[in-house]
Write a structure and sequence with these properties.
By secondary structure, this protein is an alpha/beta fold. The protein contains 22 helices and 22 strands. A hairpin with a 7-residue loop joins strand 2 and strand 3. It binds pyridoxal-5'-phosphate.
Length: 629
């Protein structure tokens, strides 16, 4: 079983959290909770009619990460004898699901996390909560007049609001809205600076001089002038920058922090109340377990991040003799990525070997040639014979297109070639130095497993930006997998497949999986670390909509939310939120489901079907993915 964990990289990306039990099943051990057997969990849910795909959330992972980041900064502050402080803020855009937001806001208050909102609904979500006694509420994004009013309103409600100014126009709006009412409280202000330092990794365009966001130095000085004129300079308390998400190199972070700390120190001469330095997000997640600067990893830990960041700030502050800031981070990905697992099940292997017709009299010469090749190919001649087989197959397909080959012969050509490929694969496995070219050829034509989910809904980043997630089967870790597979989803889109899987050594182009000899046995697949951005970017392509959600609660579970069913599972309880029904999905596209049902009823009469209406309507009420059984 240890080998199996290595095979999938679980021993590295799974850390202390994902392991294997005696049954050969993967288990998830969230902080302060008993281990949960994911395979048994999936079977248990299926028995209750909750079919894959579903997302399983472990909110205690979020608390664990929040605590880890806070402790890391506390330790770094102590280690550097830094006299400033630290405050974490969770950016809502990373995951707006209620279970996630509740997890963040229910964390112990002494951890001191606030929320960051980037749109009106996000702000409404933040301001409707009880104000945090110490943590700031940050407001980012483009702010029109209504948004600015909401910010003033939130301040009135007792939140420590800091509006982060991204353009001169926003300062004007801030001052104008301030004059609209006799507000009792005025929000504080921050500035988003455009840094010269770029991030690293996929999102490096978010930083640097060409970035979409942030004020240039001239604009910063202009904002200061306007605020002084408007008699609001004392509101300016924070300097912010954000150089992108998933920064893979610690060096880039250090450079940015150094530049930002300099800017902070210099700006203090203009803005006497300046006391927060907000480093934005970007803290990387080690999706593949390699701890390298690879795009699916980061070459530092949370502790190293905190330690380096505090060190850089402390040394700039010592040099410039500026007032030490409260360091703010807006890490989102690092707090929530590993709390969620997407579970699907594998249905069938495509490309099954079907029997082919026996040799017969008037068989085409190409079919005969393919039979000969299949019979005589061996370790000595496989390079020549395999190329021949490709030629015969291609020629046969060509002849079919021009009308010289029957459909039966075309079927035989395909079937024989498939067998040659399988035999070649077996030969390659026995060779110490197999031909690279042929290995490449046979591997790209490997098995496909059909997974009952839509990547557009469950792993949208694999499709849109080639992000890689770790994946592993939930059972059979005591057995050696025999198939190298690609995962295809049930959408009708040719992009609906997963071609890369995170792995510490080299990301895998094919996932090793077990053959399903016993077709009645359930074989589930987990995609891990899907808790950041995937829920919010999920789309309804092909009308495969929101999946079921299962939240795993320990003994300290808060009361279940409305619309959520709670059931016991071993030592934990599960909060079930059913995914979108077909009706929900159609309604979201603007269809009037009532009148559609009416039409269906009418058709029943016209078509004189003997099927009952209730049977037909039952079809429309089935859960998000029409099951294939
Ligand atoms: C998206 C975003 C974040 C979160 O970034 P992560 O890389 O997920 O930590 C933080 N701050 C701002 C301004 C953002 O736009």
């Amino acid at each position: 079983m240890e080998n199996s964990l290595k095979r999938y990289g679980v021993d590295r990306w799974g850390g202390e959290t994902v392991g294997v039990n005696d049954a050969g099943h993967l288990q998830f051990r969230a902080p302060k909770q008993p281990a949960v057997d994911l395979h048994e969990l999936a079977l248990f849910l299926e028995k209750r009619g909750i079919r894959t795909p579903f997302v399983v959330r472990f909110p205690s992972m979020i608390h664990g990460q929040m605590e880890r980041l806070k402790r890391a900064f506390d330790a770094a502050i102590k280690e550097n004898a830094f006299v400033g402080d630290y405050a974490g803020v969770f950016p809502i855009k990373v995951n707006q699901r209620r279970a996630v937001i509740e997890a963040v806001t229910s964390a112990p208050r002494e951890l001191g996390y606030g929320l960051e909102a980037g749109s009106k609904p996000e702000l409404l979500l933040a301001m409707s909560r009880e104000p945090h006694p110490t943590a700031p509420m940050l407001i980012n994004g483009f702010k029109d007049r209504e948004f600015m009013r909401m910010a003033y309103h939130a301040a009135e409600l007792g939140h420590h609001v800091i509006v982060i100014i991204e353009s001169i126009r926003e300062v004007v709006r801030f001052l104008e809205v301030g004059r609209e009412h006799a507000w009792h409280k005025t929000p504080d202000l921050g500035l988003r600076a455009k840094l010269y330092t770029k991030g690293s990794g996929r999102w490096q365009g978010s930083g640097g001089e060409t970035s979409k966001f942030g004020l240039t130095t001239n604009e910063i000085l202009e904002v200061v002038r306007r605020l002084r004129e408007g008699d609001r300079l004392e509101r300016l308390v924070l300097l912010h920058f954000h150089i992108g998400s998933q920064i893979t190199r610690i060096k880039r972070i250090k450079q940015a922090v150094r530049e930002g700390a300099r800017l902070y120190s210099a700006l203090q001469a203009y803005a006497p109340q300046l006391r927060y330095l907000d480093l934005g997000g970007g803290l990387g997640v080690d999706y593949d377990g390699s701890r390298t600067s690879y795009p699916s990893s980061a070459n530092y830990t949370i502790e190293e991040y905190a330690s380096q960041v505090v060190y850089e700030i402390a040394s700039v502050i010592e040099e410039t003799e500026a007032r030490p800031p409260i360091i703010v981070t807006e890490s989102g990905r690092a707090l929530v990525a590993n709390h969620a697992v997407c579970i699907t099940d594998l249905r069938e292997v495509q490309g099954e070997l079907l029997p082919i017709p026996d040799k017969h009299e008037d068989e085409h010469r190409l079919i005969e040639a393919l039979r000969e090749t299949l019979e005589h190919i061996n370790a000595k001649n496989y390079e020549e014979y395999f190329h021949d087989a490709i030629d015969f197959r291609d020629e046969a397909l060509e002849l079919f297109s021009t009308g010289y080959l029957t459909i039966e012969d075309r079927a035989s050509a395909e079937g024989l070639f498939q067998r040659v490929r399988i035999k070649t694969t077996k030969i390659l496995e026995q060779l110490s130095r197999p031909s690279e070219e042929i290995t490449e050829y046979v591997s790209t034509a490997h098995h496909k497993y059909l997974a009952n989910f839509s990547i557009f809904q469950s792993l949208p980043d694999t499709w849109s930006i080639d992000h890689v997630f770790p994946a592993a089967p939930l059972s059979r870790h005591g057995e050696r997998p025999t198939l190298m597979t690609q995962i295809v989803d049930i959408t009708c889109d040719s992009d609906g497949c997963v071609n890369t899987f995170a792995h510490p050594e080299e990301n895998l182009r094919f996932l090793p999986l077990h053959e399903q000899l016993d077709k009645s046995e359930r074989y589930f697949l987990g995609f891990f670390m899907t808790g950041a951005y995937q829920d919010s970017l999920a789309n309804d392509h092909n009308l495969f909509s929101r999946t079921h959600e299962i939240v795993v609660r320990g003994a300290d579970a808060p009361p279940a939310l409305p619309g959520v069913e709670r059931i016991g599972f071993g030592e934990v309880s599960l909060d079930l939120k059913i995914g979108a029904t077909n009706e929900d999905t159609l309604a979201a596209m603007g269809f009037d489901v009532e009148s559609m049902l009416h039409e269906v009823r009418n058709r029943h009469r016209v078509a004189e079907t003997t099927l009952g209406e209730s049977w037909a309507l039952g079809l429309l009420q089935s859960y998000p993915y029409l099951t294939r059984e």
